[in-house]
Amino acid sequence: MININDIKIAVIGLGYVGLPLAVEFGKKVPVMGFDINTNRVAELISGTDHTLEVSNEELLQATHLRYSSDMAELKDCNFFIVTVPTPIDEYKQPDLTPLIKASTAIGSLLKKDDIVVYESTVYPGATEEVCIPVLEKISGLVFNQDFYAGYSPERINPGDKEHRVTNILKVTAGSTPEVADLVDDVYNLIITAGTHKASSIKVAEAAKVIENTQRDVNIALINELAVIFNKMGIDTEAVLTAAGTKWNFLPFRPGLVGGHCIGVDPYYLTHKAQAIGYNPEIILAGRRLNDSMGKYVVTQLIKTMIKKRIQVEGAKVLILGLSFKENCPDVRNTKIIDIVHELQEYNIDVDIYDPWVESAAAQREYDVTPIDVPVAGQYDGIILAVAHHQFIEMGIDSIRALGKDDHVLYDLKYVFAKDDSDIRL
């Protein structure tokens, strides 16, 4: 087995997860950062990260890190870390294509004693049932005899400048006890918060997939409570604030559940559960409820517009925010797009304004083009959908000024006081 002093790391996938990891390792040991996107590689070589997860200064500090889109340049590496995305398809089934392609590419380079560690979120068993057979087939090597594997689930929180890769406790696992120790030691080179060594790869996989499943179910409960309280004329935030005075009340808030984790990971677990003959009840119910919230938001807006005698068909509505969370340019699996599509069903003219999102990304992902700057006095409805700091700093008067004399303001994120908006979730 390789010695930690001889570690040469390859990070496969330089997105929100892979780049921060590669940069931190690149401050300590030799690292090759690989991505199939040549533009992404060129951008990083120039010293810029458009995702804003890593600053230009941090990129410069990673003096042992090099970038490439040529797999051949990874041939001398012996510790491969896979951080490719694991999305769901249109039928909400796991799409392991990026993972299989990455395993195929690594298999063509695999040498005796090499270690392949997966960070991508998967269902329990996927590493050993899907990835390892690909590595064996392509390389011709025997698992746990010629090469080894590990799993260390990512815990990156896009846009969060407080919880970074180094100060979030890391779960690690290996395919043998000795490999588990080495994988743990390697991550401890950069993880100041420490590590938790799981008893098996499957345990580590399961731990990751339930982290976001738990959040998803909890948010679904709060969303359902918000619907109930709205029908009763009770302010949801006031209820949650009151309940939050108890020491063990969990501080979840209602809202749209998007992004590449919370809205996706539960489907990986339910897929595996159904494959072994169990149909999950609570998890899928929570998913259905959270996926329906975009439609509910639009229904509330339309009802309020009608009550104020604002013509719905042909109305003009401004959505403030498109990214899946505040102060982040990431639009993957954003549920704001559900609101856009639902409004368009009513023949409403929709403008989207998001100072964080690149127009090209919005166009590529959803075929929508955000406006550069909203014009005052133009809108029949305004939905404050994402709590970017720019919107908070604008203040309620400036946001209200974007609407016509008679308009509806929906504060989806509780950014302003209750009396400042016409509707809150």
Taking pLDDT < 50 over at least 5 consecutive residues as the criterion, the unreliable ranges are: none
The total strand number stands at: 13
Estimated radius of gyration: 23 Å
User: What is the H/E string?
Assistant: EHEHHEEHEHEEHEHHHHHEHEHEHEE
Shape: elongated
Strand content: 5-15%
pLDDT averaged residue by residue: 95
Largest sheet: 8 strands, mixed
For the terminal residues, how far apart are their CA atoms?
A: 55 Å
Helix content: 25-40%
- Which secondary-structure class do the elements indicate? alpha/beta
- Number of DSSP helical runs: 14
Strand order of the largest sheet: 3-2-1-4-5-6-7-8
Outline the structure in words:
With 425 residues, the protein is α/β, with parallel strands linked by helices. 39% of the residues lie in helices and 14% in strands. It has 14 helices and 13 strands. It has helices spanning 18-26, 38-45, 56-61, 97-107, 126-139, 177-187, 201-232, 236-243, 265-275, 282-291, 293-307, 336-345, 359-366, 389-400, and strands at residues 9-12, 31-34, 65-68, 79-82, 115-118, 148-151, 170-174, 195-197, 316-320, 349-353, 379-384, 403-411, 423-424. The strands form two sheets. The protein has an eight-stranded mixed beta sheet, with helices on both faces. It has a five-stranded parallel beta sheet with strand order 10-9-11-12-13, sandwiched between helices. Helix 7 (201-232) packs across helix 10 (282-291). It starts with 8 loop residues before the first strand and ends with a strand.
Which terms summarize this structure?
alpha/beta; 13 strands; 14 helices; 425 residues
